[in-house]
Amino acid sequence: MATVTIGSSEFDRDTAVTRRAPGVYDAHLSAGWTIIQAVNGGYLLALMGRALGDALPHPDPFSVTAHYLTASVPGPAVIRTEVVRAGRSMSTGTASLVQFREDGTEVERLRVLASYGDLSALPDDVRTTAKPPAIPPYEICPGADSAPGGRPAISGSTAITERLALRLDPATAGWAVGAPSGKGEMRAWFGLADGRDPDPLSLLLAVDALPPTAFEMGLSGWVPTVELTAHIRHRPAPGPLRVAITTRNLAGGFLEEDAEVWDSEDRLVAQSRQLARTVLHG
Amino acid sequence: MATVTIGSSEFDRDTAVTRRAPGVYDAHLSAGWTIIQAVNGGYLLALMGRALGDALPHPDPFSVTAHYLTASVPGPAVIRTEVVRAGRSMSTGTASLVQFREDGTEVERLRVLASYGDLSALPDDVRTTAKPPAIPPYEICPGADSAPGGRPAISGSTAITERLALRLDPATAGWAVGAPSGKGEMRAWFGLADGRDPDPLSLLLAVDALPPTAFEMGLSGWVPTVELTAHIRHRPAPGPLRVAITTRNLAGGFLEEDAEVWDSEDRLVAQSRQLARTVLHG
């Protein structure tokens, strides 16, 4: 497929919002970004990020927190934003995504609190001591179609996997052949299937687009995200990203997933942490 | 000083809120929790946490995000809360803290988005792979009065240091004698000076109560918090806490501080990440 530019990708199409009044946006949650019957949380975060980028006076997400309240479904949605503070170099806002029941009443899906700035205005110093993840070269990491033993068995929709160009680190792909490592780790090369280069909004997708570390820890069942906070630290360079996710605190029916996103110039362009539930309470 | 119980500590007194109407609370920001002219961010987080614990149907913070908008000052404040969703095992809410200018108009200091639950209702399984920090025993870690060379020179108020029983890991205390390590690390034993045992609310203070890692990295000047997200994962056991903070991504005028809080039973009871600015833009 020919590489598409930023703005003309299916990612852009499916995260588009239409402002119908100040602070009110129409959106459509695409079925193309679902996994195991759930609309992917990173896709929803990117969608909210696009609305906030329009609502706030600064263009780029710096810190974005989402609380996932009820399960989104493909279909129409409305996003309402509020400007909390418009500063000189940063601004802060909230966003609420709702969908509609058959009787027309609203149900809120996500609530977001975020601060935005201008990544282009930041000084270019780098004193990062973190190191890029040790993922084998792109060519030897299996894509979904080339995983040993064929496509992993996941019940329900795997539509999102057709939107992404994911190549898992074999060391974190044991779950796909019934041999989970037992370690809370997941690593992959990440890109969009239509070749669109990354940008700050697609980083919001990238932090929540890998298989869950729970798969490698031998946990079965759904591990829904309760809350996710992402920091966007630099505009990503063109080319594939490397995403490394770690879980170190699986306890009490919850776990955290820490994600790092590295670009092709070895910059740590995004960091996130999510809190997810491993045991659904009554 | 005799050990005080949870509820009767200066921490409880200074984070108390009075509900004057549904969702509206009066508070007083105490000058006792300031450092270098700023009201400590963890103290503010705990104060908001107390209000939300009253406003929401679940008692304990699970995930709390604060965006620090303008600098708080000691004095009166009003907190307004909103219930976003009241679920069966978790609920979500927002909180806004405002103070008043001389002309009576409001200025917002913090905006918080948080999900609450009941820590006592969680199953007791622990598969945490993270390990407690290697801090030397309490007895050999210097308190503020016993730091080599005497009390570190910090200009402006150090009132909060009188509220806390902090004992720094000597390996992260080089800054106090003009010899910063250059590493983005800060570790300490943490308690309250009046001996109050920790609880979920005081964990919100603990994640932001150590000297900044910036001190060890040789950065001078103020490093204000833009946003902080804390996960409270377990009710802490009585006794001192160990707090370990790490910075790995100092770049572009920002840095992150990742904090882990361990209790006396070697449980990882809280984790947080904050985004802070190292260079104040115009």
From TrEMBL, chains A, B:
Residues 153-276 form the Acyl-CoA thioesterase-like C-terminal domain. InterPro entries: ACOT8-like_C, Acyl-CoA_hotdog, HotDog_dom_sf, Sec_Metab_Biosynth-Assoc, TesB_ACOT8-like_N. It holds the Pfam family 4HBT_3. Residues 30-115 form the Acyl-CoA thioesterase-like N-terminal HotDog domain. It comes from the Bacteria. This is TesB-like acyl-CoA thioesterase 3.
